[in-house]
Amino acid sequence: MFQPESIRGDFPILGLSVNSHPLIYLDNAATTQMPEPVLATYCEQHRLYEANVHRGIHRLSQLSTKRMEEARVKVQRFLNARYPEEIIFTSGTTAGINLVAESFGRAFLHPGDEIIVTNMEHHSNLVPWQETCRRHEAALKIWTMEANGSLDVNRLASMLSSKTKMVAVCGVSNVIGALNPLDDIVKLAHAAGAFVLVDAAQAIRHGRTNVQELFCDFLVFSGHKIMGPTGTGVLYGRRDILEKLPPVVFGGGMVDRVTETSASFESLPFKFEAGTPNIAGIIALGEALEYVQRLGIGACEHERNLIRYLEQEMREIPEVELVGSPRFRVGVLSFNLQGFSAFDTAALLDKLGIAVRSGHHCAQPALRHFGLEGAVRVSPAFYNTQEEMEAFLDGLRRVIPLLKGTKT
Ligand code: PMP
Asked: pLDDT over 90 for what percent of the chain?
């Protein structure tokens, strides 16, 4: 069985005190912490190998290039992608989705076409599609979740038609933790002739991702949500499709031959990687994925147990109103304390050293589906312990009378 205590030492930040309490970090859906091997790899790149990639014949540039391309292969293996050139490095999920929305729109969208997204999406998987649809006079169709926050694929089936060009959906909701039926979604969308983009920003950390088995067309995630550095991300795309998409960002590194008036472009993956990439971050991301792989699926199971335990216990606290109750929940649990603002709840928890997120979680339509403008979100990771869950529940019980006190 996975023991979080055995790896907590890898995460120096978990030893911090906050407001004179030991830090209990439960905001992992926003950003995870980096373990020592990832921090060391990041620093090592700057200390010993700093040089630009794909540009020089000198030794450091060669070494940097090799290390970055090795990271691409690590990502390929992690996702079980068929080819390394299907891995495009980006600055994060948001950048990856914008890239696809822009490029896909130019290549494939015509007036009257349709794109389907759900109403549980993060704004990053909604607004780029709104913009693309507007520019190409396509229609954005919203697949609404059920009352409990689950997605019913029958609804999707009834929305799909020959006009549908893309279904863009998250693997796991960042507000309610719904684990979505991606296999069914991909099969249905493909049967209708539509492409599928999976926003795996949350899903990437909650189980094995196998893009060949899933057979999605695009999948995006951010390094900082899976123990890697901020400013790194991955866009996976099936090679045959990426080859048909035009680049949308232009500059150094992505061109082949350039004249004063025209340019031809590099092949995959470089045509989508204009400018100097986040070299140290990418190499550290490769290390992060290997770290997570070494921990194995036991780490994911441990995390699921923590969420299950929290949900059970929080249902017993009368003031707690949980947001949604999807059939399968992983990673996050959102709630409000009856009558009190999410901001105040999170601020009081912070006084106890407990880090949780409050607000609309960049998913305003998702919260409005539940009649809310904001919520508190708790999101454990594999390094969190059962004792920390108890301390969080205890903190919550202490915060309730304080909030009630401020109201009278
Ligand atoms: N999609 C989902 C489901 C997310 O949870 C997030 C981050 N909260 C994003 C997209 C955006 O990720 P980033 O800010 O790293 O680009």
From this structure: 98
